Amino acid sequence: MSRESVMIKVAVMGACGKMGSAVCGAVIADTELELAGAVDPSATDIEIPWALSKERINVLAGREGLDNKSIDVMVDFTRADAAVENILWAIENGIHSVVGTTGITEPDIERIKGVVDSGNANVVMAANFAIGAVLMMKFSEVAARYFDRCEVIEMHHRDKIDAPSGTAIATAKRIDKVSETSRSQPADEREVKGSRGGRLGEVQIHSVRLEGLVAHQEVIFGSEGQTLRIRHDTIDRSCFMTGVLIAVKAVSSTPGLTIGMEPLLHI
To answer: What Cα–Cα distance (Å) separates residue 49 from each residue in 37, 77, 181?
Structure first.
């Protein structure tokens, strides 16, 4: 697509964050997209990292400075409370949304769905935009039908606020949905409170927060005489950009509220 062709104009919320700045760089580097705005409360001129672009951009402190009519898609990587307001603002202004912010509650998701259904803008929300992570969740859902029990260990950088991660929650929900509820519970005598992690349905989840990590998840299945481990490791945040750009380009033709990348990847 040439620069003279119609381009998708994108605004990024949370532009100074690690994910947001990577999205800005990916948008600038894509010949089908145009960075139409960048917003972050800690607004400053920033140099886009991850070697995706050498351009510098002006980041606004709030949505007020955006030209709503010049934005086709909003990408949000902020905090849950801010993301909900950003999504509702986008729908009100006829702007499609691609949301990677996790921790948004079920009541807020239902609220967003109600507004989407009565509006003219679409929303794609995904706990993880890495293609490998999407496949990990899909493979785990398949394996859950054949194994007795499973536990999830998710590991992230120490600045990640929510725990468990959105990916771990999404994985556990999918596993629990296909698991047999009659399976026996494991022994549970604890010397240290919380040492078995938390439980979502039939799935135990353990969250690790350490410097040096980016985003990692291992799903361990166990049955008599065997175990199966399905693991995804994010080495660099650039791996999320393929999924984000797929969503940005597909959201206008994906009606309503879509949860997860699977419909966009046709898996």
So the answer is: 17, 16, 46
